Amino acid sequence: LSVILANIVSFLGFIIMLYSLKYMECEPGRTRYWFLMSLFISSMLLLLLADNLILLFIGWKVVGICSYALIGHYYTDEKKYWIGGPPPFPFKKPSECGLKALLFTTVGDVSLLAGIIILYIYSHTFNLIELYQTAGSWIVNMAKTPGLLILTIILLLGGPMSKSAQFPFHEWLPEAMAGPTPVSALIHAATMVKAGVYFVARILPIFFYAYWIANCRGAMVFFILTAFIGVFSAFMAGSQAMVSLELKKALAYSTISQIGYMMLALGVAGLNANTLVLGFSAGVFHLISHGIFKAALFLCAGVLIRISDSIYMVNINASKEKMPLTWFFMWVSALSLVGVPPFLGFWSKDEILVACLESGQLLFLTFALITIPITSFYTIRFMGLVFHKENTTEIERREADVISLISYGILAILTIALGLVGSAFNSFLLSTFKIYFTKSLNLIITKS
Questions:
Q1: Per-residue pLDDT tens digits for 414-431
Q2: pTM value?
Q3: Cβ–Cβ < 8 Å for 209, 136
Q4: Residues 403, 18: contact at Cβ < 8 Å?
Q5: DSSP 8-state class, residue 245
Q6: ∠65-70-74 over CA atoms, to 5°?
Q7: Of 119, 297, 389, 441, which one has the fewest beta carbons inside 10 Å?
Q8: In the Cβ-directed half-sphere of 445, how many Cα atoms lie within 13 Å?
């Protein structure tokens, strides 16, 4: 899991930094920007590759601090950098948006730290491998104290739910769009919000063992909460994206919704003893595919917003005749978001629905299915408003610069290429995690 996600973060981080060469060349605070972006990516890699909870938490916190500074990059709060509106809707200043993100995620960080301390008190280790290997003894002792296991689960989930902007911590992410577009792309595609999904996936085997093998009934709360919050966030954020006025905010609500799908997959992985591998690999698959097509969408959006000099979709008068490559690359990424075959997003989203069906969670499956036409609506809406409305005045620029085209062009082409081998890629993930879980669970049973 760490190796797969570290490679995804490194690749997407490189593409976004490449895009930044042109995007940030005339922006204020370039030195500060490059320092914080480099620290942002390296902190995410520390989080992913840490072998213990202390190092993981250090990476977790530095990621949060970097996001605060980058969201508030335009801290001078000049009016041209405000988001929100138009009147009578209120505007938000970048410095306020950065502070809001910091406060929301810090609440979850404190919750996560409390959960980690409880884990250490009972397991006497911060090492993740040792936590797995000794789970047969310490988690059973924890379960003997009424309510403690459930409390620990709630505290541990508080961190990833706030970091990944899931209900009820979701409102900071749309306002994070006050930062430069490459920052938005990095937060949504490779860092920050994906950290929460990773942490849930990383500790999931412990609670799967606790419920299905050690018979600790309270451990089921981990999977029920994860699945419920995920599917509710997917539905709720999708409905918010349907009425969003700003292009980047529509994409932000979309991210909350798609992260909800990932959480749903990880939740249903433990609601049935036979769907562990299916649900787990579906969640990781969607994390990978979402990172690729969502980064492309944000990078395209950055070009469109800049050449139109407006954050509102109704004012972005792009032309598919004058910007054919950007139009094509953005449509490819948008169709992948919807889940249209044979694009990459179809395979990952389909696997999540299959996992819900195989686990017997028909209620979760119903809400996941309802969210699909909602996703289709807001995606076609923002593409239609940007490229396909009848324009009275059109932009005069013919196409984006070469560096920008290369950046999101690579991602769009990758969405098509991986989509064509989507079934094989899914089979690879399934077989990989099947071997991983078989060895891990057998080791836990042997140790206990």
A1: 999 999 999 999 999 999
A2: 0.95
A3: yes
A4: yes
A5: -
A6: 135
A7: 389
A8: 12
